[in-house]
Amino acid sequence: xxxxxxxxxxxxxxxxxxxxxxxxxxxxxxxxxxxxxxxxxxxxxxxxxxxxxxxxxxxxxxxxxxxxxxxxxxxxxxxxxxxxxxxxxxxxxxxxxxxxxxxxxxxxxxxxxxxxxxxxxxxxxxxxxxxxxxxxxxxxxxxxxxxxxxxxxxxxxxxxxxxxxxxxxxxxxxxxxxxxxxxxxxxxxxxxxxxxxxxxxxxxxxxxxxxxxxxxxxxxxxxxxxxxxxxxxxxxxxxxxxxxxxxxxxxxxxxxxxxxxxxxxxxxxxxxxxxxxxxxxxxxxxxxxxxxxxxxxxxxxxxxxxxxxxxxxxxxxxxxxxxxxxxxxxxxxxxxxxxxxxxxxxxxxxxxxxxxxxxxxxxxxxxxxxxxxxxxxxxxxxxxxxxxxxxxxxxxxx
Length: 398
Known about the structure:
Elements: H1 3-10, E1 12-13, E2 16-17, E3 35-40, H2 44-54, E4 60-66, H3 70-75, E5 84-86, H4 89-94, E6 100-103, H5 110-119, E7 123-127, H6 134-146, E8 152-155, H7 162-172, E9 179-186, H8 202-205, H9 216-233, E10 239-245, E11 258-265, E12 270-277, E13 285-291, E14 294-298, E15 303-307, H10 309-316, E16 335-336, H11 345-359, H12 367-386, E17 390-391
């Protein structure tokens, strides 16, 4: 095969890989309708979503924020003069002008507020993980079927980017061959602790550290990569092995600061290793997908493919008549998947969410995909805390 023919078939071009996914070919530049938004939970994530929505003024208009902590409401200084702040999320649900509710609360509250929001007739953007338990996820799936006119999108924002769509295309086309191993990490050297203005607020501010509120590292970090694998391969793990511990920060936390899990996708013939530690940041965000023809290495907004011998030979074959399309190799022998880094994933996710509401269609990150990821997170935690292998249940096949 000539290199030019190979490039044409694979989508590779000079400096990177063609973006071919139509979902991002015709993004709305100006909204057909500006959606009024109420944000419930105004910590780091809620205020971050508001910042992205503010950069999309033709699509979204944040008119209210809710948080149970007064100092967070006090931090909401950039609200428009007609917007309001409240500690009672029911006030937002009762507000007829509000089209969309963003839920960015502790995980333990996701299900209850999402359920109330659907019953109130609101569209819902629900942060990951979708629910705290598998039972809650199943109930939310059933409830969403009854309220199908309301669009529920789950905030696994990284896979909304063009990069991750392209990688999904590459996997589905067999471009990197048969994938047998996925290697994922999300490491940091940080205690995950936020400043507490009043010791009485410790559990509310640092809720990620306490089992009553949090799914820990599996929910807050590893769920993104797990969600992508489920989606891209149209699969789910049949077995989950996991272990963890509070191995570094002896500060009263209850959720693990060191977690390692092995997910066995028997139907797909794959093994996924997923891990996170709070005591070393060397790998940071690591996401490797290893196929028989090549390996893909992903960051949040950049990706590189490393060809195996078969693919390398095809790339290096030169058509003597028409000449060769130049491939840009990086210093360690990889090819950039896109020409330049993508935007923050939340920007793409919110664009996709707006489009889904306007067109009255389910988003890619929906209640079904969100539930399957929530099942995985719950299984990892059950396996790690109880030292017992977890198996996919028949009722999870939704």
